[in-house]
Amino acid sequence: MVQGDNMDMEFTDFYDILRENLNSYRGEYERIVDYAPDLFRLLSDLLQSRDIQREDRLMICAAMGYLVAPNDIIPEEIFGPHGYIDDVYLCSVVIDELAGRMGYRFLEEYWSGDEDLESVVEECISRTSEILGDKRSSVLEYTGLR
Predict the structure, then answer these.
(1) Which UniProt keywords are given for this protein, alphabetically ordered (predicted)?
(2) 81-94 pLDDT, tens per residue?
(3) Residues 98, 107 contacting (CB under 8 angstroms)
C-alpha cells in the first residue's frame, strides 16, 4: 500500500473531467461531442474484460491516449469543445472495429450511455467523418492505427 501526505485528497476521474468540460457546451456539434465521456468510459471499461485480445487492447489504448493528447489533430486547448470531434471520431471507429469482431451485443454489456450503442457509433462516425473530411486519415495515422 502506498502511503503519502495526500491520501485524503479526492481525485476526479477523467470521465468526470470530460463530462464537466462538455456539460455547458451549447453549439453546432453539441450532440456529437457530448458522446465523448460515454465513449471513453466504454473503452476504459472494456479493458477490464478478459475477453479483449492484445491487438484490441492496443487499439483501445490508442483511442484513450488520443483523448488526452494535448496536441492532437484538433487540439481542445485551441478549439475548445470542437476539439473533441476528432476524439469522438477515433473512439467511434475503434468501437466499430471491436463490434465487427465481438458484436455490439457484447459491447452493450459495458455501455453506460442512455442510447443504443450501435446507433450512437453510426451517428458519430457519419457526422464526424463529414466534419473532418481529409483529416480522418491524419487522426488514424497520429495514433498508428493506419
Answers:
(1) Membrane, Transmembrane, Transmembrane helix
(2) 999 999 999 999 99
(3) yes
CB 73 within 8 A of CB 81: no
Type of residue at 12: T
Q: Say if 50 falls within a structural domain.
A: yes
Domain membership flag for residue 55: yes
Q: Is 13 left (phi over 0), alpha (psi -120 to 50) or beta?
A: beta
Report the phi/psi class of residue 15: left, alpha or beta, with left for phi > 0 and alpha for psi in -120 to 50: alpha
* Cβ–Cβ < 8 Å for 124, 35: yes
CA dist., res. 69 & res. 105, Å (int): 30
Domain that holds residue 113: 14-143
Surface-to-core class of residue 40, CB atoms within 10 Å of its CB (0-12 exposed, 13-18 middle, 19+ buried): buried
**pLDDT classification of 13: cutoffs 50, 70, 90:** confident
Number of domains in the chain: 1
Residue 1 maps to a domain = no
Domain assignment present for 7: no
Cα 116 → chain centroid? 16
Cβ neighbours of residue 43 closer than 8 Å, sequence gap 6 or more: 60, 63, 64, 91, 94, 95
